[in-house]
Amino acid sequence: MKEETIEKRDKNVPVNVLYSFPHKIGAGGICYSAEQQVRALSEVGANVTVITGVLHKPLPDNVKVLTTLSWGKLRISYKLFGTMRALSLHDHIVAKKVLKEKNKYDIIHVWPSAALETIRAANSIGTPTVLERPNAHTRYAYESVQNESKRLGIPLPPQNEYSLKKKKDVLEREEEEFRLSYRIVCPSEFTRKSFLDQGYAPEKLVRHFRGVDDKRYYPGKSATVKRRDFTMLFVGACAVRKGVHFALEAWLQSPAHRNGTFMIVGEFLPAYAEKLSEMLSHPSVKVLGHRSDVPELMRKSDILVLPSIEEGFGKVCTEAMCSGCVPLVSEACTDICRHMENALVHRIGDVKTLQEHITTLYEDRTLLRNLRTQGLQTVPMITWGSASKRLIQVYREVIDDYKKEVPIQDR
Predict the structure, then answer these.
(1) How do residues 215-242 score in pLDDT, each as one tens digit?
(2) 20 to 30 Å CA-CA from 373: which of 44, 73, 109, 318?
(3) Mean pLDDT calculated for residue range 353-370
């Protein structure tokens, strides 16, 4: 029987993974992370079947790919069809495949808002699920961003992912997914803690991390040359969640702004830009908008700032390390950033400490070089190859735990 085959599976036998990703795998943001995750898994020998909404970029030949929201050049528009409806359709199609191909997969990897029906199907046939959580717990994420937006007097537009409207549409569904999934994989300790604070059992939460593309992000000559100028960089969505206002306050309170440059890469929410307009107009601040040369900008910068109030991982932190750029981050960002080892870390919203960190590295170039060196030495441990090995380990641990907890007759 298939159950017996799985029960006796040797550790050297590849793990059969069904990877359900409802968005445009290979595009930007989490779509890029999912693509890199799948590529790395295939390279370390996992048998991966990907079911994605849209295949934005080709995956390796040894990865089987099915799409749920596109057929050749024909695609369902997430915007016109409605994002939640599109995610629900993806979830429904994947769930049907799970039921049809019972016992084909050792584990099913799903993403939020498009996994409820799939998880229920997997539970009904006795296959463990791991739910990727790209951010902190949804309730914490909504409440923290909304509270800070209210403090600043910035209304969130209805279509914003952290608006009350979105909260009503998504929160209950995601919390049910959290409850029913066998394990939740958290890319940072901050993410894990946000679930513990909501009452989740520690054994339900599993740690892994996102990798970094060290072929795209690498140090330039400036990483080893002492310079007189000083450049701070921010990369990301210019929104309340990312704490750009904290970065601007800290920068303008630091002497670094007198002859240094603060470059901001990303698109601003209009209301947020208006609120920050006075600080953004300072001569030392350069708002660059969307850029395609982020790796080069990181190589030219001394420090990267990411004072987020809510974050899942913060991949720009590790990308900065690879580029020879020192991260100055809030405690919401990845715990790969270790204070006074390869980064400087401050409490969320602590502008005074962030200002002190900027000033310290502006004035102490020896410390800046030491942190940069330690960051570059971290790189081999945080590549996508290393991340995939950890994820395979997670899969095997989850499968073993599931076998111990769930009787064969219930699988």
Answers:
(1) 999 998 754 444 568 999 999 999 999 9
(2) 44
(3) 97
What's the pLDDT score for residue 405? 87
pLDDT tens profile 63-107: 999 999 998 878 888 988 888 899 999 999 999 999 999 989 999
Q: Which of 367, 368, 259 is nearest to 320 (CA)?
A: 368
Domain 2-211+384-410 identical in fold to domain 221-381: yes
Of the candidates 243, 273, 241, 194, the residue with the CA atom closest to the CA atom of residue 350 = 243
Residue 25: what are its φ and ψ, rounded to 5°? -60, 130
pLDDT in tens, 97-133: 999 999 899 999 999 999 999 999 999 999 999 999 9
Asked whether the beta carbons of 294 and 301 are under 8 A apart, the reply is: no
Structure tokens at 317: 């932190």
Pick the CATH number of 221-381 from 3.10.580.10, 3.40.50.2000, 3.30.930.10, 3.30.1360.120: 3.40.50.2000
Q: How confident is the model at residue 7 (pLDDT cuts 50, 70, 90)?
A: very low
Closest CA relative to residue 255, chosen from 326, 361, 330, 327: 361
The C-alpha atoms of residue 52 and residue 70 are separated, in whole angstroms, by 9
Q: Domain-by-domain residue ranges, the chain? A: 2-211+384-410, 221-381
Q: Which residues pair with 183 in a beta bridge?
A: 130
| Strands of 271-402, DSSP E | 285-289, 303-306, 326-330, 344-346
Q: Does the domain spanning 2-211+384-410 belong to CATH 3.40.50.2000? A: yes
Nearest-angstrom CA–CA distance, 377 and 194: 29
> Would you tell me how many other CB atoms lie within 10 Å of the CB of residue 326?
28
Task: Assign 167 a pLDDT band (cuts: 50, 70, 90).
Answer: low
Cα–Cα distance between 411 and 404 in angstroms, integer?
12
Where would I find the beta strands (DSSP E) of 252-325?
Answer: 261-265, 285-289, 303-306
Q: Using an 8 Å Cβ cutoff, are 102 and 16 in contact?
A: no
Q: How far apart are the first and last CA of the chain?
A: 12
Written as one letter, the residue type at 96 is K
pLDDT value of position 74 = 86
Distance CA 330, CA 188 (A): 13
